[in-house]
UniProtKB/TrEMBL annotation:
<keyword id="KW-0456">Lyase</keyword>
<comment type="pathway">
    <text>Amino-acid biosynthesis; L-tryptophan biosynthesis; L-tryptophan from chorismate: step 5/5.</text>
</comment>
<protein>
    <recommendedName>
        <fullName>Tryptophan synthase alpha chain</fullName>
        <ecNumber>4.2.1.20</ecNumber>
    </recommendedName>
</protein>
<feature type="active site" description="Proton acceptor">
    <location>
        <position position="49"/>
    </location>
</feature>
<keyword id="KW-0057">Aromatic amino acid biosynthesis</keyword>
<feature type="active site" description="Proton acceptor">
    <location>
        <position position="60"/>
    </location>
</feature>
<dbReference type="InterPro" id="IPR013785">
    <property type="entry name" value="Aldolase_TIM"/>
</dbReference>
<keyword id="KW-0822">Tryptophan biosynthesis</keyword>
<dbReference type="GO" id="GO:0004834">
    <property type="term" value="F:tryptophan synthase activity"/>
</dbReference>
<dbReference type="Pfam" id="PF00290">
    <property type="entry name" value="Trp_syntA"/>
</dbReference>
<dbReference type="GO" id="GO:0005829">
    <property type="term" value="C:cytosol"/>
</dbReference>
<dbReference type="InterPro" id="IPR011060">
    <property type="entry name" value="RibuloseP-bd_barrel"/>
</dbReference>
<dbReference type="InterPro" id="IPR002028">
    <property type="entry name" value="Trp_synthase_suA"/>
</dbReference>
<comment type="similarity">
    <text>Belongs to the TrpA family.</text>
</comment>
<comment type="subunit">
    <text>Tetramer of two alpha and two beta chains.</text>
</comment>
<comment type="function">
    <text>The alpha subunit is responsible for the aldol cleavage of indoleglycerol phosphate to indole and glyceraldehyde 3-phosphate.</text>
</comment>
<keyword id="KW-0028">Amino-acid biosynthesis</keyword>
Amino acid sequence: MNRIDTKFQYLKEKNEKALITFITSGDPDLDTTLDLVLEMEKSGADIIELGIPYSDPIADGKTIQESSKRALSKGIKISNIMDTVKKIREKSQIPLVYLAYFNSVFTYGVERFFKVCNEVGIDGVIIPDLPIEEREEILEESEKYNVYLISLVAPTSKERIKEITEKGKGFVYCVSVNGTTGTRSSIDTDLEEYIGLVSEHTDTPKALGFGISSPDMAKKYKDYADGVIVGSAIVKKILAGNSKEEIMRNVGSFVKELKESILS
């Protein structure tokens, strides 16, 4: 069984929600990425998304775009990130998911990408700009190597939700608002209607992301889905740190607060 399935099953038995955290691989460097994964797991993260830096991340807001630029400026490549995941797997079995743009996967080689993901221990992949017409090739390789292709839906998906989610696995990434990633003070989408519509088409766990930026927001919105995703707010904590020790302390403390907020 895939680690993502095992984690959601475990949380369901405990009647808990999943805390899914995001960082950009290589920001500020890959050694820190490795240590941040371990720190976030220790602090309560259930699943961790590792962003593969890309020059034109259209689904991301300024915070994550800038983190991608910082990583790329240091020459971070997919092969370096794969090596880092291999090192993480020597110390942790937390579910790990890549967030990668289609061109990155295509350039690396679709079969090679999923084969190496399997070898190093990646459990799932989110490709926010994956064209529907290209999905079959991606699905074929993801299924061949038991690396889940995670569906991503938005409030505007409506009539396409069934098509988008029918072959996805692991969890459904439910974008909470139209637009790009980024911290927000509130979410205006009718989440009850939106998540209810997604649930009509799939039994796969749903995780709510884009805009959840504080423990209060995580607590407010946790009951709409099976998990919450926090990314930009964590990337900001990394950027604000003046040393690796401060980054670890700030991120660890923030993740702990987030986890406690969805347990209460």
